[in-house]
Each structure stands twice: as structure tokens, then as C-alpha cells.
Amino acid sequence: MEQSQNIFERVIEKDEACWNVIIAGHGVNGNGLKALELFELMQSSGCRPDSYTFMGVLMACNHTGMVTEGLKYLDQMQSLHGIKPKLEHYSCVVDMLGRAGQLSEALKLVNELPYEPDSGIWSSLLSSCRNYRDLDIGEKASKKLLELGPEKAENYVLLSNLYAGLGKWDDMRQVRRKMKEEKEKIKILKSHSEKLAISFGLLHTAEGTTLRVCKNLRICVDCHNAIKLVSKVVEREIIVRDNKRFHHFKSGLCSCGDYW
């Protein structure tokens, strides 16, 4: 982001696209305060924000835990700027509330959406329920999620992770049986595939090499803690891109500050 910021500052005539990219970049990488500072500068420069701008602003609030600010900007989209929020804006706010542990508020927002909630919203809510061990809302989210995508293995993985985190092994085994009934080939272990990828990387790359891993689900708490420890023990930087953000692990710490 430092290089991106330097290039941005050299641009003399900054248009909406230029502002949107730098705001979103800081937002998704956890530099929320910088993103909001740039948003204010954008407006003072006379450049009008659009729906893409607000997507970056909401991501900034989401990844930095600024719930009050995020709700304020969602409201201001239409009240001050005449921009109707799209499903992806609401999805980001639902994720923001979930990450902050405000699961009841997140579910309330989902139920009041002017759009039909998609699988991404329910998946985000279920992941947050797993992190905060909320079985009631988690089961409601999983029911909706499985209705939308009964053939998708990752939906069963999220639910089984919730049950495993709560020590409900019988329920977890039932979910695994359901996966087999739906002819899914992905096992529960694959939900933690980043550990396998990192192990492979450590064995097949030179010492000091930065490891880069991508996965299609949000990284779980157990894997996040494990990778922090690994980065400290092997003295390597490990970069993990999950379905929400980049995690830069180094010396036992993560760039997300344990907030994702």
C-alpha cells in the first residue's frame, strides 16, 4: 500500500476511479482511518463519491471494527448523496456487525433488507456465529444457506465448524453424513487446507522465502493462531488471502490485529 499511496500522490488530476482504488486498497488492508481520511479529502477536492467509493469506505469500517462509522456512512449514502445502497453494501455491513459480535443486529438487518439475501450474506453471518459460538443464529443462517446451495460443500463445512467449535460432535457427524448423502467429496479437513499449503511451502521453499496462500473461505480462529505461531518459529512472513482480506503473518503477529 505504501507504493500505491506514493503513486496516487503523484497523480495531478485525480478522478473518481483513482480515489476509489486507493480508498478500497487501504480499506481492505485494515488501514481504516487512512481510508476515511482519503474519503474526506476526496469530497473536499470536489470529486463526488459514487457507489464504488462507499463500498471502499464500508470495507474500511468493516476491517477496522468501526461499526458506528460504518452504519453512519450506510445511512449517508442515500440521505446525503442520493445513492441507493446495493446488496453488496448491505452484505459488507452485515459482515461488519458479525465481526464485531453484534450478531442479533446483523440478523435484524438481514431480515429487513430491501433485497433477497444471497448465500454470501448468510455465509458471512454463519462464519461470525462460529467465531462467537452463537448456535441459535448460526443454525438459522445455515438453514438459509443450505436452502440456497445444498450442493456446495463449503456450506456444510461452515456448519460443521460451528458445531465443532461448540463441542457438539454428534451434530458435526450428522452434517458430515449429510455431505455424503449430497455426494460431496470434500472432507472437513479441507476447510483447514491453508495449514497443508503452508506445510508444503515450508518443505519446498528456501529459508526466508515469503509464503503466499489463498483460500475460498474465511480463515478460522484455530488456523489463524497456528499460522501466527508458525511465522514466529520458522521466522518467515506468511501471507494468507481468505475470502475477506489479506493476512500478513510475521514474528507471531498478524496485520489484521486478530480482527477479521
UniProtKB/TrEMBL annotation:
* Keywords from the UniProt entry: Repeat
Is the Zinc keyword given for this protein? no
GO terms classed as biological process: RNA modification
List membrane-spanning regions. Answer: none
Map the PPR repeats onto residue numbers. 15-49
Q: Which GO terms describe its molecular function?
A: RNA binding; zinc ion binding
Which PROSITE patterns does the record cross-reference, listed alphabetically? Answer: PPR (PS51375)
Q: Which residue intervals define the domain DYW in the entry?
A: 172-260
The keyword Repressor is annotated on this UniProt entry: no
Family the UniProt entry places it in = Belongs to the PPR family. PCMP-H subfamily.
Official protein name in the record: DYW domain-containing protein
- Annotated organism of origin: Arachis hypogaea (Peanut)
